[in-house]
Amino acid sequence: MRMPELPEVETIVRGLDSQISGKTIEKITVFDEELLRNVDTSELKREFEGEDLTAVRRKGKYILLEIGGDRLLAVHLRMTGKMLLREKGEETDYQRISFRFRGNGQLIMDNMRRFGTLDLLTDEKQEPLVSLGIEPFTDSYRWKDFRELFETTQPLKLVLLDQKKITGLGNIYSNEALFRAGLNPLIPGEDASESGLKKLYETIPKVLEEAIEQNGTTFSTYRDSSGDSGNFQNFLDVYQKEGERCPRCGSEIIKVDQSGRGTYYCPKCQEGKEEGGG
Ligand SMILES: [Zn+2]
Q1: For residue 155, what is the domain's CATH number?
Q2: Which pLDDT does position 273 carry in this prediction?
Q3: Of 12, 34, 53, 263, which has the fewest Cβ atoms less than 10 A away?
């Protein structure tokens, strides 16, 4: 089980934006109030039924439904969440909230394990969005700020996973970016070479871009808004490749546990000596 990362969320957002922006929300049905934050069912219906969905955007791993031009519903999919476009009257296995549109179609927030959330916000300066860290593909992603995040004893991969430092990366793309930059995921940020960090800074948007081009990575539950799988799992170098050959030097890829999540790397061509391991 894993959480969608920036490329998967971006793929979902692009699909939704092209298919439902401009539609009018006719009826909202909440099947499970547990997912609601800062809003309850009656307020959601009162505020948004009859309003236009003006755009669908992304911030970090959040899907932002912009409604009536001035309010945002921020959806986080967590582990098993999906945003599915269906015909009116259709149901999905774990539907939690449905937005039915005037004319045809509905958007269903489907969430098997119920960890997903839907927040009502008036702008992006509110939690949970305001505390997100610098973000690839935006003006906030600058070398100077990126460099500063690594002046820490925290291991490189854990810096990348911290959404308050850099937002959008999860376990897959952190492993892949560190491999491409030739950096050992276990070494403290402050021990990484300047050139290695520069390479990491440059490679992160590239890895994410390539993954977006492949509509993300699917291992288990991730699907885009049409219910289709991603394809980037076929282009991974190290993630879930333990025991296989490093595509660069032929050494064996190893896996270690790092804060409860699998870290995959090539001990030969990812620079830096770890201190105390993971
Ligand atoms: Zn190698």
Answers
A1: 1.10.8.50
A2: 62
A3: 34
